[in-house]
Write a structure and sequence with these properties.
Strand order of the largest sheet: 1-7-6-5-4-2-3
CATH topology of the largest domain: Aspartate Aminotransferase, domain 2
Number of helices: 14
Strand content: 15-25%
Number of domains: 2
CATH superfamily of the largest domain: Type I PLP-dependent aspartate aminotransferase-like (Major domain)
Distance between the termini: 48 Å
Structural class: alpha/beta
Largest sheet: 7 strands, mixed
Helix content: 25-40%
Number of strands: 12
CATH architecture of the largest domain: 3-Layer(aba) Sandwich
Shape: globular
C-alpha cells in the first residue's frame, strides 16, 4: 500500500455494524465487564481506548514499527521515553535540539541521574568518539530545530553496532510520509503529533513508535503508569489530520522550495537553511535516506532590526510558536522555542537575534513570498 493510501486506509475498521467511515470517538473513561473473569479487551481509558488504539496502530504502520503509544503532547512522549533510563545512564544527544527537549534533559533528566551529553550528531566521527561504556542511547533530531542539520541514520546505526544502545529519532519535521528511520536502523521514533500529523494547529499530541515488540511493551507500560495519554477526542482529531498528510506535505514542500529559492536571492538575508537547496551540506544524504525535504526553513537577516521588523510586519504569515499546520508560521527562536537555552550556548550553535524559522504552509506560494517581500521592504 502506497503511503498516500496508507494514511487513509491502513487501519480501516470494517467491524462497525453502522458502516461508519470515520473511527468512532469512544468518549468514556471506563468500560464494563461482561462478567467475572471476562473482559471486552478494554478496562480503563488511561490503559487503552479504542479511538486511541486505532490511531496508535495507524502511526505504527506508517513508521514500520511494532507498536506505538499516543501521549498528551510531544513533551509528554519524551518524558515517558526518558523513564526507560536509570541513574548513571548516559545519552548522546544532538546539540541542536528543540529547546523544550533541552529544558527537560537539563532540568529533569539530570536531576534523575541521567547524563545527557550534546554533540553534533551529523558528524559521524564525533558521534563515534562520544560513545562510552555508560552510553545507553543516541537521541537525534533530523533535520534539527532550528539549524536544519541532518544526521545519517544508517551511519549512526553502523557505529552503534551490536551494543546495547538505543537509536532514537525525532521524526516530527519530515513525518513517515517523507522519512522512515526504522528501516535504516532506528529503535524508537518520536513525534510531536501536534505538528504535521495533526496538521491543523488545533490539538496537542505526541507519539513514541518502537521497532521491536519488546520495546513497544515497555513503553506501553510506562504510558499506562505515568498517565499522560492522548484523549479520545484528540485521538480522533489526529486520525483525521493524518488522512490528508500526504497532500499537505507535498504542497507545503513545494511552497517551501519556492520560498527558499526566493529567500536566498534577497539582499536582506545572509543565510538560508533548507535541506532541499542543493548547497545544503546534507542535500545528497537527504536524497539517499528520505523521500522529501519537508517544509521547514530557517534564515538569517542582515541585522536584528531587520529580523524583528519582519516579525512585526508580516500579515498573512503568523508570528507563532509552532509548526506543521496548514498556515505558514514564523518563529523567533531566541525568544520562543529556545528561550530556555543560555545565550552563549545559542551563539555557539548559530542561533541569535537575526535568525528566523519558517514553517511553510499550504497557501499559494506567491502570497507567502509577497508577504515576506512586503515585510522586508
Amino acid at each position: 500500500m502506497k503511503p498516500e493510501t496508507a494514511c487513509i486506509h491502513a487501519t480501516r475498521d470494517k467491524s462497525h455494524s453502522t458502516g461508519s467511515v470515520t473511527v468512532p470517538i469512544y468518549q468514556t473513561a471506563t468500560f464494563a465487564h461482561p462478567g467475572v473473569g471476562q473482559s471486552t479487551g478494554y478496562d480503563y481509558s488511561r490503559t487503552q481506548n479504542p479511538t486511541r488504539e486505532h490511531l496508535e496502530k495507524l502511526v505504527a504502520i506508517l513508521e514500520d514499527g511494532a507498536g506505538a503509544t499516543a501521549h498528551a503532547s510531544g513533551m509528554a512522549a519524551i518524558s515517558t521515553l526518558m523513564e526507560l533510563f536509570k541513574p548513571g545512564d548516559e545519552i548522546i544527544a544532538t546539540d541542536d535540539l528543540y529547546g523544550g527537549s533541552i529544558r527537560l534533559f537539563d532540568s529533569i533528566s539530570t536531576k534523575n541521574g541521567v547524563i545527557v551529553r550534546y554533540i553534533d550528531t551529523s558528524d559521524l566521527s564525533a558521534a563515534e568518539a562520544s560513545i562510552t561504556e555508560a552510553t545507553k542511547a543516541v537521541f537525534i533530531e533530523t533535520p534539527t530545530n532550528p539549524m536544519m542539520k541532518v544526521s545519517d541514520i544508517a551511519g549512526l546505526k553502523k557505529i552503534i553496532g551490536n551494543r546495547d544502545i538505543l537509536l532514537i529519532v525525532d521524526n516530527t519535521f519530515l513525518t513517515p510520509y517523507f522519512f522512515k528511520p526504522i528501516p535504516l536502523g532506528a529503535d524508537i521514533i518520536i513525534h510531536s503529533g501536534t505538528k504535521y500529523l495533526a496538521g491543523h494547529n488545533d490539538t496537542l499530541a505526541g507519539f513514541l513508535v518502537a521497532k521491536s515488540p519488546e520495546i513497544a511493551e515497555k513503553i506501553h507500560y510506562l504510558k499506562n503508569t505515568l498517565g499522560g495519554v492522548l484523549s479520545p477526542f484528540d485521538s480522533f482529531l489526529v486520525t483525521r489530520g493524518i488522512k490528508t498528510l500526504a497532500v499537505r506535505m507535498e504542497k507545503a514542500q513545494e511552497n517551501a522550495m519556492a520560498v527558499a529559492q526566493w529567500l536566498k536571492d534577497q539582499p536582506k538575508v545572509t543565510e538560508v537553511y533548507y535541506v532541499g537547496l542543493p548547497n545544503h551540506p546534507a542535500y545528497e544524504l537527504s536524497k539517499r535516506q528520505a523521500r522529501g525535504f519537508g517544509a521547514m526553513i530557517s534564515f538569517s537577516a542582515v541585522s536584528v532590526e531587520i529580523a524583528q521588523n519582519i516579525l512585526n510586519k508580516t500579515e498573512l504569515i503568523l508570528f507563532a510558536e509552532s509548526l506543521g499546520g496548514i498556515e505558514t508560521l514564523i518563529t523567533y527562536p531566541v525568544t520562543q522555542t529556545h528561550s530556555y537555552v543560555p545565550k552563549e550556548e545559542l551563539a555557539a550553535r548559530g542561533i541569535d537575534g537575526k535568525l528566523l524559522r519558517l514553517s511553510v504552509g499550504i497557501e499559494a506560494a506567491e502570497d507567502i513570498i509577497g508577504d515576506l517581500e512586503k515585510a522586508m521592504s
